[in-house]
Amino acid sequence: MQTVSRENESVKIVTPEDRSRVSAVLTTAFTMCPLLRWLYPEPHRYLRHFGGFLNCYAGDPYTDRSGAYFDNGDKGALLWLTDKVQRDDASMMKFLLGSVPEYRRSETERVFEEFGKFHPQEPHWYFTMLGIDPMLQRSGLGGLLYRHGLAILDEAKGLAFTEASSSDSARLYESLGWKVMGEVQVGSSPPVFPMLREPR
User: Fold this and answer.
1) What's the CATH code of the domain at 70?
2) Is residue 42 part of a domain?
3) Residue 4 Cα distances to 9, 135, 140, 174, angstroms
4) How many domains is the chain built from?
5) Which of 35, 91, 123, 154 is deepest in the core (most CB within 10 A)?
6) pLDDT in tens, 94-116
7) Predicted confidence (pLDDT) per residue in 120-140, tens digit
8) pTM of this prediction?
């Protein structure tokens, strides 16, 4: 792990011009994500489909300016959907079932159906992706980036939902005011933790 000086980090809100940079850092960051690598276990499948997954899962944060990343080195990125934007879950499921291995389709569908049961019924922000370059993970950059996004959320006094794809991520989010709602684990899938953060 590299040592970084967090005081010198420059966080920038994403714009359409940042799409390729943010996509690159997230593609790199999620190579170690238990859920993403369960969906796409072979490297060629992961690299072929991650961009499509990102587009379906995270929507279009670039147009909505609903994301942030480290502008000095592309060390990490955070994306969210505000309470004014809804993801097209039917299109996302269609993409998933067409891109994961055939033997994993049934469990994939059930995993995402379980996620849906935890989503709040009232309008809420949805923090979809937090990724830090694997060379810099456990450096504190994830918390720094998340605090930037949460400051925007708290200014809007919004309710927020997310899914932590590891117990380490869940612990980080808990330290930032999130609460674990439950655990989703279907068949061979890794455990994922739906989480809620009340308005501040």
Assistant:
1) 3.40.630.30
2) yes
3) 9, 11, 9, 23
4) 1
5) 35
6) 999 999 999 999 999 999 999 99
7) 999 999 999 999 998 888 788
8) 0.91
